[in-house]
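Quick one: examine the sequence and fold tokens given here and explain what the tokens say about the fold. Here goes:
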Amino acid sequence: MRITEIKLYSFTELEKEVQKRLIENHAHDFNFDCDPVVLGFVEDMKAYGGENVDVQWSGFYSQGDGACFTGDFDTVKLLSTLYKYDSDYNKLINRIKDDVYSVEISVVRCGQSNHYMHSNTIKACVTCDNWDDLTEHHQQQLMGLETYLTEWVRSECRSLYDSLEAYYAERTSAAFITEDLDIMGDVYTSTGNQIAMIDIF
């Protein structure tokens, strides 16, 4: 039986070049958990009356990458929030609220490139079951509303993608990985080979 003594190191005790290689390997094998960002976005949409919000995204750094979502909105809650300081929409909102006008708002996929996930692959859809009952002024407001809401949801999608990209960059940064590997408390040989504690005891 031969007993060999091997000196072991924590991550921060390793040579800088060895640390760099381990960080690169960790970043390459990184399994990105986007749930904190996506779930936060879904919660944000609930504040606008968003329901059945389904987020899709792809990334990063390739053509066509981006984020989008589909879903339905509580019309009164959405319009009351977006037009909170625009009294010109009060009558329209009140008539929808009182069921005088039957208006529904949703976000749907559009275009021929539905295998992409960027913001331009969705649009707002405003439908009214009793269009002829609307005043001409309210008809004009609803027609303009679809364009405005499409721009709004696309802007929200771009912000979502920016948040996803920033979160990914943070989680794959050398500083974050260094802290993560240090907290894990693993031990290594001088060349960076990880030694499982079960191999020691």
About this structure: The chain has two domains: 1-30+172-201, 34-171. Residues 82 and 161 are 22 Å apart (CA to CA). The beta strands are 50-58, 66-73, 103-109, 122-128, 187-188, 194-195.
